[in-house]
Amino acid sequence: MSSSTPAGQVTEEPTVAARFPARFVWGAATAAYQIEGAVAADGRGRSIWDTFSHTPGKVAGGDTGDAACDHYHRYEQDVALMAELGLRAYRFSVAWPRIQPDGRGANPAGLDFYDRLVDTLIGHGVDPVATLYHWDLPQPLEDQGGWPVRDTAYRFAEYAALVHDRLGDRVDTWITLNEPWCAAFLGYAAGIHAPGRTEPAAAFAASHHLLLGHGEATAALRARGAGTVGITLNPAAVRPLDPDSEPDQAAARRIDGLQNRIYLDPLFGRGYPADVLAASRRAGGEPSWLRDGDEQTIAAPLDLLGINYYAPAVVTGAPGEPAAAAYPGSDGVRFVPAPGPVTMMDWVVEPASLTALLQRLGAEYPPVPIWITENGAAYDDRPEPDGQRVHDPERIRYLDGHLRAVHQAIAAGVDVQGYLVWSLLDNFEWAEGYRRRFGLIYVDYETQARVAKDSAGWFRDVIARGGLPEPS
Ligand code: IFM
To answer: Which family does it belong to (predicted)?
Structure first.
């Protein structure tokens, strides 16, 4: 293949070695609290993340999402940047406290923002993909008990319906929850995410009510004619330290239950696995949260399974080891560092684990279209002295490696239909604050200037080419 430069020379374009299907969805993702800022605008209420981030000692540097990337006011500029990259889809999340500041009723001004955002996306040829819950529970609902309380599931379905009633004529793809494992177990067991509770038994109840909320919301969305409804999980790509050791295999199986099968099995109609219910009991909670009919509600057919992948986990059997805070019931399991380079999150870069995870999903669960709804890496990005460029070769390597891993899974027969980079913009990285930068686009938080990193240009070329060249 060849093309002409403006000067008229003919240059050889690299052969596309890893070509993706023609209708493959290329995009990027963000989440409301991480980018919007404007936390008091147009009647927005408080969420558990407002409370948590304003609690001293909870977030690095005392950072909060108060201003974030000011996307609430700068969304037009941000959508124009998406269009320059050639993104086909943009996954954003709706801030529940903008829509229901009190956890009930409706705030039309909050819905107006997403109305404008969706229109702007469509006007630029970018498909809107709406996530309904990316961790910002209205504080009034937490005050009534939060996700460990069953009623929260019904409140979520009510909110989902409200959002669909406003946006459903233009938004076709809906993701109910983002990473329910993090919301339940980082938020209610480890306490390192909002609402910061350390109540292992409550975390299992929270996890179940998130899934129940997903099922109820799915029914509400479908009743309103939603085209594509799915959920996004962050399965652990967990493996035993010694693949031949029975204790190590058992340890990996335990973590697989607590982060993967706890969601996948009920979602695909298999109900909760016995080992997960046993772990809930060991953590001090009879699974009294499980009522007749819940598993049917949760098993509503999925049009889409979103997978967020960043890094593998390696475990070994270690008798006497207390359960890790985020994995109640995981006594006797020790996490060990995987070998290899790490990102600034200290997460090991291992693309092969993504292929393995996707192949496992393809082999063990009923067929469903899969999108990688998040994949990306944080590095120590700094603008060049001219302030116009940010060189981020490590991110390009990371994304390139993981896209090849996705391509391999597709070649092996897994139905992966989309890939969304985390993230479009640098943003508020939860308990890590602003010191971890995941964006394709650098954000100067003092001036709110946006600078496209080299990886943004690289991704634009991948999209335009529909794939990757031979590895260099
Ligand atoms: O920033 C988060 C995102 O909100 C959820 N998935 C993981 C990302 C990186 O930690």
So the answer is: Belongs to the glycosyl hydrolase 1 family.
